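pls design
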């Protein structure tokens, strides 16, 4: 897939997900980008996979950021959804902000979507139904830590209500399939790691995170801003580090009796080097081999399945070596199609 094809692929995703402005930006970028700018030369010479590396999302975000900052008038009409010369707007922004835009390509997009916690919570309901324990939660690729607030959100999961009723963040995905078990979830601890965490207590860092949200998606902005406010009230246990190091170190720590230890992550696996993936898998499977019903281990992965061309929720459980896809879901978890573990 070449660069224009990748941008059209992302544009079509925007078309089908109520993001027409973002689709316009993607199509304008496909035409406007050439090797006359540092950004263009870098993008056109990309040696990885445009979609797996999320290059379209890396590229759209800085233009959205400039619009939100009010620092590029040429982008105003485009990002407001008004009639304009889209390609000319993108080229004008590149001419004035090439170096800044180029820097956004350095790392993967920080699409830290709080609603993805719904997939984790539904899986925790399944695990509670099975073991009845408290949870020790470990998240890799935590970004700004929005999913580390999993116990501070209110959920409606197929009419199963979970979490504090007075939460400022209410997550209600369009639910299809059987509901998860209606059982009380008890979370003892939550810790996360990211190679480049975003500290949203800093206003500039928060703006960086919000730039990755598509301009069309007002509900996501409201949810992210409410989650950021919760983080500023009580910062989660989020550290900077390597995902494999974190998993290996946490698995070596003593596990309290009648506690289910859970590794969880969402839309991060594709960005990890193969060696890191292999180390995490090996560490989890080795720890799983020693798991017992008093000291169980689980792994919740909400990730893109390139073969199915869908995002799936995969749940692995030890002891018993259960390995099942228990849901497919929208990448932002706006809808979830659930399958009970016993189905």
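designed seq:
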């Amino acid at each position: 897939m070449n660069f224009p094809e990748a941008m059209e692929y992302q544009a079509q995703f925007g078309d089908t997900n109520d993001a027409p402005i973002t689709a316009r930006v993607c199509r304008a970028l496909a035409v406007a980008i050439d090797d006359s700018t540092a950004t263009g030369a870098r993008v056109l010479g990309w040696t990885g996979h445009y979609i797996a590396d999320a290059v379209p999302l890396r590229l759209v975000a800085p233009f959205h950021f400039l619009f939100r900052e009010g620092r590029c008038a040429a982008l105003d009409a485009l990002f407001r959804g008004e009639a304009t010369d889209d390609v000319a707007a993108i080229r004008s922004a590149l001419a004035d902000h090439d170096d800044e835009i180029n820097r956004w390509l350095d790392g993967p997009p920080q699409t830290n979507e709080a609603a993805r916690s719904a997939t984790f919570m539904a899986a925790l309901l399944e695990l509670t139904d099975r073991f009845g324990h408290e949870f020790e939660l470990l998240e890799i690729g935590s970004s700004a830590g929005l999913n580390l607030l999993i116990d501070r959100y209110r959920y409606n999961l197929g009419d199963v209500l979970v979490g504090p009723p007075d939460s400022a963040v209410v997550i209600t995905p369009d639910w299809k399939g059987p509901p998860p078990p209606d059982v009380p979830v008890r979370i003892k601890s939550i810790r996360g790691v990211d190679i480049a965490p975003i500290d949203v207590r800093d206003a500039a860092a928060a703006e960086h995170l919000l730039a990755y949200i598509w301009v069309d998606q007002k509900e996501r902005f409201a949810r992210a801003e409410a989650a950021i406010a919760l983080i500023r009230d009580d910062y989660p246990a989020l550290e900077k580090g390597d995902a494999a190091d974190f998993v290996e170190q946490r698995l070596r720590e003593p596990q309290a009796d009648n506690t289910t230890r859970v590794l969880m992550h969402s839309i991060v696996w594709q960005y990890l080097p193969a060696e890191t993936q292999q180390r995490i898998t090996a560490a989890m499977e080795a720890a799983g081999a020693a798991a017992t019903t008093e000291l169980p281990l689980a792994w919740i992965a909400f990730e893109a399945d390139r073969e199915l061309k869908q995002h799936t929720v995969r749940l692995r459980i030890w002891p018993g070596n259960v390995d099942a896809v228990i849901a497919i879901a929208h990448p932002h978890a706006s809808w979830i199609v659930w399958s009970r573990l016993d189905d």
